[in-house]
């Protein structure tokens, strides 16, 4: 008869036999492992990014280096072309170093000559300016002298006017300067204010031309210093009767800008001496009213 237990197995041995199971890992170990994996992933990403960035910068620098190299090649090519053109030009001109040196020497000589010419010109200009200043000074001195002469002339004229007598004319009604002798007549001429025509008339002679008119002596009275003359002007004969010495006899003539004036300063037997004064045409002159009827 069979049984379920082994013949050599005792109940005690069957009771003590058990299976060994390993202990479970702590939970923090799993978290630490996951964190380590994440850290490695992050470091890998950062390293990859930096590498990509460096590779990009390196590629950019390489491109720039290629561009600069190309530009340098072009510059070298242009320099070579220019050097070749310069050599060809030098050959065409046939210039040598000696000839260039002579040309520079010639240019320097021309420059020095120009400087010397400029210096001479400046000296001449200075001399001309000095001479001009001297001449201007001389002219100023002359003008000062002329001004002094004019002042002296004005003083002389003032003194001359003071020496002359003043009489009231029968037409102007104002005082007029008259000459009473030959000396005063010369002074009156120097004033140059009117035209002066000196005359000497003799009785029984034909009319005498005095300036623009004619005068005829009719009679004289030496004792009373009187005389009578006939004025011939504008185709008319107008007598001036019993006029006295130093009396201004005024009358007008057609076309004149002022009055005419006769002054006799010397009456002798059948002779008279005096002068006729007329206005300077074109200059200012007092208006002449209609002459009164002659006496």
Question: Which descriptors would you attach to this protein?
Answer:
four-stranded antiparallel sheet; disordered N terminus; disordered C terminus; single chain; alpha+beta; 4 helices; 295 residues
Give me the strand/helix succession: HHHEEHEEEEEEEE
Q: Which overall shape is indicated by the principal axes computed on the Cα atoms?
A: elongated
Strand arrangement within the widest β-sheet reads 3-10-9-8
Low-pLDDT residue spans: 1-7, 9-14, 283-295
Distance between the termini: 222 Å
Descriptive report:
With 295 residues, the protein is of the alpha+beta class. The protein has a domain at 166-279. The protein contains 4 helices and 10 strands; from the N terminus they run αααββαββββββββ. Strands 3-10-9-8 form a 4-stranded antiparallel β-sheet, covered by helices on one side. A 4-stranded antiparallel β-sheet has the order 4-5-6-7, with no helix packed on it. Strands 1-2 form a two-stranded antiparallel sheet. β4 and β5 (213-221) form a beta hairpin. α3 packs antiparallel against α4. The N and C termini lie far apart (222 Å). Mean pLDDT is 78; it is low at 1-7, 9-14 and 283-295.
SSE arrangement:
Elements: H1 11-16, H2 27-93, H3 97-163, E1 165-168, E2 175-178, H4 182-191, E3 194-202, E4 208-210, E5 213-221, E6 226-233, E7 236-244, E8 249-252, E9 259-268, E10 271-279
Antiparallel strand pairs: 1-2, 3-10, 4-5, 5-6, 6-7, 8-9, 9-10
Helix pairs in contact: 3-4
């Amino acid at each position: 008869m069979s049984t379920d237990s082994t013949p050599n197995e005792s109940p005690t041995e069957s009771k003590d036999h058990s299976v060994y199971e390993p202990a479970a890992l702590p939970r923090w170990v799993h978290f630490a492992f996951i964190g380590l994996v994440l850290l490695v992933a992050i470091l890998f990403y950062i390293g990859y990014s930096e590498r990509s960035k460096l590779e990009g910068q390196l590629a950019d620098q390489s491109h720039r280096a290629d561009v600069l190299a190309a530009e340098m090649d072009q510059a070298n090519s242009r320099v070579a072309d220019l050097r070749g053109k310069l050599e060809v030009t030098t050959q065409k001109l046939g210039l040598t170093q000696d000839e260039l040196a002579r040309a520079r020497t010639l240019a320097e000589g021309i420059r020095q000559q120009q400087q010397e010419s400029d210096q001479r010109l400046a000296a001449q200009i200075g001399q001309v300016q000095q001479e001009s200043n001297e001449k201007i000074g001389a002219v100023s001195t002359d003008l000062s002298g002329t001004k002094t002469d004019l002042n002296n002339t004005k003083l002389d004229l003032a003194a001359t006017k003071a020496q002359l007598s003043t009489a009231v004319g029968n037409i102007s009604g104002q005082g007029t300067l008259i000459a009473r002798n030959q000396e005063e007549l010369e002074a009156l001429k120097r004033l140059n204010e009117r035209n002066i025509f000196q005359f000497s008339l003799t009785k029984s002679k034909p009319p005498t031309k005095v300036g623009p008119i004619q005068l005829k002596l009719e009679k004289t009275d030496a004792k009373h210093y009187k005389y009578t003359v006939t004025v011939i002007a504008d185709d008319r004969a107008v007598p001036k009767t019993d006029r006295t010495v130093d009396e201004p006899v005024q009358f007008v003539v057609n076309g004149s800008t002022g009055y005419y004036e006769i002054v006799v300063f010397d009456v002798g037997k059948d002779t008279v001496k005096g002068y006729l004064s007329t206005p300077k045409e074109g200059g200012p002159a007092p208006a002449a009213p209609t002459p009164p009827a002659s006496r």
